[in-house]
Amino acid sequence: MNIYLETSRLVLRRFTADDLELLVSLDSDPEVMRFLTGQPTPRPEIADVVLPEILKVYDEHPGLGTFKAETRDGFVGWFGLQPTGVPGTVDVGYRLLRSAWGKGYATEGTRALIAHAFTGLGMERVVADTMAVNHRSRDVMRRSGLRFEKVYHEHFDDPLPGTEFGEVLYAVDRATWEAGAHE
Question: 130 lies in which domain range?
Fold first, then answer.
């Protein structure tokens, strides 16, 4: 199977239509979804919306997308570089099985994607966001070389606990990354 990116412990590959059950296993854990939707994603939504959208990005935005992350022991989650609508800027993200938490995979994969965005894709800026109360993800963003930029507030019809504290944006530009902020 075609490798998108490899680190010392992770192999990132494109998802295929055959990977539905992997996404279902990931999104069925309420703790994994805590700061995203607050609840497991229903299987039909993954089959009819989530997976088709992942596959569509590969075709519409070459070099970008959501990539299956595997270790020697198997599937651990995904990492992604998504289009933002701003030329030269991509959004980096990740979602890992709870069994993969606390092992450094999130930082390792995010650092690799940031480097790839600048050196392989010619991007000028990488951004990431999360809920302000999601301290684990904020720590990953900092360790990956992203820098805090701002807190902002969005309206949600059914807000999650902690939404009142806002969302946070982290980013790094090519010049900062090249100057060594990524080390």
Answer: 3-181
**pLDDT of 47-76, one tens digit each?**
999 999 999 999 999 999 999 999 999 999
Distance between start and end Cα atoms, the chain: 31
158, pLDDT greater than 80: no
User: Which CATH number does the domain housing residue 49 bear?
Assistant: 3.40.630.30
How many structural domains is the chain composed of? 1
Chain centre distance of CA 53? 15
The length of the chain is 183
Q: Which of 53, 57, 51, 52 is CA-nearest to residue 26?
A: 51
Whole-model pTM over 0.85 = yes
